[in-house]
Amino acid sequence: MTDDAWTQEQIRAHIDAGLPLVPLFNIDVLEAAAHTASVRLGPGPHVTRPGGSVAGPVQFALADVAIYALILAEKHDAMAVTVDLNINFLRPAMTLPLIATATPLRMGRRLFTAEVRIVEASTSKLVSHATGTYALSGAA
Prior knowledge:
Elements: H1 8-18, H2 21-25, E1 27-33, E2 36-41, H3 56-74, E3 81-89, E4 98-107, E5 111-120, E6 126-135
Antiparallel strand pairs: 1-2, 2-4, 3-6, 4-5, 5-6
Helix pairs in contact: 1-3
């Protein structure tokens, strides 16, 4: 892997261009740096379910994008892919925006594992917790 660091703007542009769910769900990269990445889920017509809570698959996608942003910042590996993602929904997410913050748990040569905490921005209440593993391409 190279040491060519990606800027936050390069990471944001790469994610916006390469992941169609990002504009669909109104996800923004807030921060992407070594050891932490944060993304925000804003309001939109495709994010809530009947009753007004944020849909589980949307939170799943939010966690996945947060880990990918972290990998781009930490490992500079645009070809990394999700191997596993486990999410626990702790309470209904009723207030947008949501903030998902990813931090590394283990950064190996072939696998990268991170945890993601998803909170309501207005209350800081933890609504979901995820752990995910990506396979690194080794090409970066």
